[in-house]
Amino acid sequence: MSSSNVIDGKAFAAGLRGRVAEKVAELKSQKGVVPGLAVVLVGEDPASQVYVRNKAKQTLEAGMQSFEHKLPDTTTQDDLLALVAQLNADPQVHGILVQLPLPKQIDANAVIGSIEPAKDVDGFNVVNAGRLMTGAGKPMVPCTPLGCLLLLQDRLGKDLSGKRAVVVGRSNIVGKPMAQLLLGANATVTIAHSRTADLPGECRNADILIAAVGRPEMIKGDWVKPGATVIDVGINRIETPEGKTRLVGDVAYSEAAEVAGAITPVPGGVGPMTIAVLLANCVTSAYRAAGLDDPAL
Ligand SMILES: Nc1nc2c(c(=O)[nH]1)N[C@@H](CN(C=O)c1ccc(C(=O)N[C@@H](CCC(=O)O)C(=O)O)cc1)CN2
Which positions fall inside the Tetrahydrofolate dehydrogenase/cyclohydrolase NAD(P)-binding domain (predicted)? Predict the structure, then answer.
């Protein structure tokens, strides 16, 4: 497979962030409004700390306001709900993101459910999930699946009619919304998971294969249909034989890349899209709050 078949999520995300920055500047000059993103981190998970730092940096680079709230891992659910209520009421905050995972004493669904749907830039709230599923109203769409769709449509065109898509993974954060987005783009969609009979066979049917299982290199090269577009959502840190660590996806990349028509690498594929789409969602929220149409990004 030639390197042109590698889907460069890092470059695509940089382009999207550039368009976000232009829309931020337009909103400021038209309405005097600067979009604000509040990110809440509870605890000291090292990976989450990196993601939150990158979110704040990229938010500021796009000309937006960043509000960081770092709470200890002993934080109670009531304390967190009180902070979310304060952010819901703050007119300078257009987007609220509570970094996951949360410590075990906190019910993530209760916290996500308490975020004002218009400010739920993660799109995890049941109101936004329902809007995405039914097509009623304008949802905030979860960042990682929307990032995957943008990468796919850049390769294959907006209309995925006639394409068979297989999503491996059924989480509320990636698998289920991903399937909804693919359906919305007219693909024929199967959701597969750990209890699916003949998972390799299901994958071999896919023109579009989305891997979101969280198991390092589970999807092998001979599970991939020749010419398929493979989107790898997995980000797994594994130990090398030399005792170091490296990041791998849910797809055995070098095997799959021999067969695929196009494939996202890990790192540098889907991951960077997650934060770029988060910024885009926050700008969209600010446009809506200002009574404007959604910006074309
Ligand atoms: N509230 C949320 N929590 C979490 C989400 C989310 O969308 N909302 N997603 C993940 C973590 N995440 C953002 O929060 C995220 C993960 C990975 C990347 C990324 O750019 N990855 C790089 C590699 C980074 C590395 O070296 O470790 C890549 O794939 O190239 C960005 C954001 C869980 N929590």
Answer: 142-288
